[in-house]
Amino acid sequence: MSGTHAHGGRAHRHADAGLHVHDPASGDAVPAVPPPRPIAAGVLEIDTMLGGWERVTAGYLIEGPAPVLIETGSQTSVPVLLAALDQIGVGPSELAGVAVTHIHLDHAGGVGDVARAFPSATVYVHEKGARHLADPTRLIDSAARVYGPLLDSLYGRLDPTPAERLHVLDDGEEIEVGPGHVLVAVDSPGHAKHHVGLHDSSSGVLFAGDAVGVKLPDGGVLRPATPPPDFDLDLALSSLAKFAARRPSGIALAHYGLLERPEELLAEADETLRQWAETAEKAYREGVDIAAALSARFDPLLGDIDESNKEKLETLNGVHSNAAGFRRWLEGRDAGSAP
After folding, report:
1. How far is the C-alpha of 283 from the C-alpha of 191, rounded, in Å?
2. What is the per-residue pLDDT for 338?
3. HEC letters along the chain
4. Chain mean position to CA 58
5. Is the N-terminal amide bond of 124 cis, ω within 30° of 0?
6. Which of 73, 83, 232, 339 could cysteine-pair with 48, CB 3.0–4.6 Å?
7. How far is the C-alpha of 321 from the C-alpha of 29, rounded, in Å?
């Protein structure tokens, strides 16, 4: 057996083995990540395990003659993602496309690494995000200010992708996965100006990125994702209506998983977002701390989830981040309406 060894339950690899841990009783190598699992016809969910957490960040493989990966996860998730793809035999020449719903690091931080690993894959991205994948300097500088030490310890950075590998998606454009099987791009700003959903013509599943919000299996209720600097309430609500008009069979969230009853889910997302915005604006007008007002109204809805799951939710979709997004949007709206 070749390669270095790192025990203590930490995932590692040898030259002749994929990413794995060792069973403490037998010493046998065990895959460090579960294999991708089918969630709809021709759709595999991949847990990219941000920070080692299960069921927090998802990627999706759309199967077909020209398979497409939706979301890479963060740069720190790349070893997990590559191990998962290796488990199902996706070789370096076999991935046709990589699509990201937007360029936030928990969705697109691994793009540069994945593009290197799959040199035949085209990278699909919103027009307003493409230049940041080619030259991520400004994006990383901004992320470093927002995340501080978490940038390197949790998310990692973002390696550049050669510009010739990038394909800008127009609203309504189709990515061909196979004969009669396409992913339709759905321009969906609001969470971010560079956000695009992807609607699978075969399964009917709509991959919504963060436009619908965050609902962790272990984290209670659906919560909106309203971070700075781009959040815009009116655009976000319009994007939800646009998704509903497509009548998807299900909604696949990056955080996390496939949710059925899409009509009810999108109505809930609309109502919840309006409630958060109402609370944020009231606090803003009254000079009250927006984050405190949001926490007071909405934290009780989380119920009795344990502290570890609260930590996941707060790290991924914290009230303070959402409050900062609302504040920036409200300030911008006020500035725009000033005489």
Report:
1. 21
2. 63
3. CCCCCCCCCCCECCCCCCCEEECCCCCCEEECCCCCEEEECCEEEEECCHHHCCCCCEEEEECCCCCEEECCCCHHHHHHHHHHHHHCCCCCCCCCEEECCCCCHHHHCCHHHHHHHCCCCEEEEEHHHHHHHHCCHHHHHHHHHHHCCHHHHHHCCCCCCCHHHEEEECCCCEEEEECCEEEEEEECCCCCCCCEEEEECCCCEEEEECCCCECCCCCCCCECCCCCCCCCHHHHHHHHHHHHHCCCCEEEECCCEEECCHHHHHHHHHHHHHHHHHHHHHHHHHCCCHHHHHHHHHHHHHCCCCHHHHHHHHHHHCHHHHHHHHHHHHHHHHHHHCC
4. 7
5. no
6. 73
7. 40
- The pLDDT score that the predictor gives to residue 26 is 60
Quote the pLDDT of residue 20: 53
Token code pair at residue 155: 């998310």
Walk across the sheet containing 37-40 and list its strands.
Answer: 37-40, 43-47, 58-62, 68-70, 97-99, 122-126, 166-169
| 69 conformational bin, left if phi > 0, alpha if psi -120 to 50, beta if neither | beta
Beta-carbon count within 10 A of 39 CB? 16
Query: Nearest CA to 336 among 193, 234, 211, 188?
Result: 234
Distance in angstroms (rounded) separating the CA atoms of residues 193 and 72: 19
Tell me the pLDDT tens digit for each residue of 83-125: 999 999 999 999 999 999 999 999 999 999 999 999 999 999 9
Angle 222-225-226 (CA atoms, 0-180°, nearest 5)? Answer: 140
Place of tokens 């969630």: 39
Report residues of the chain scoring pLDDT below 50. Answer: 1-10, 12-18, 21-23, 30
> Which tokens hold the place of 72?
């890479």
Of 177, 135, 137, 195, nearest in space to 186 by CA:
195
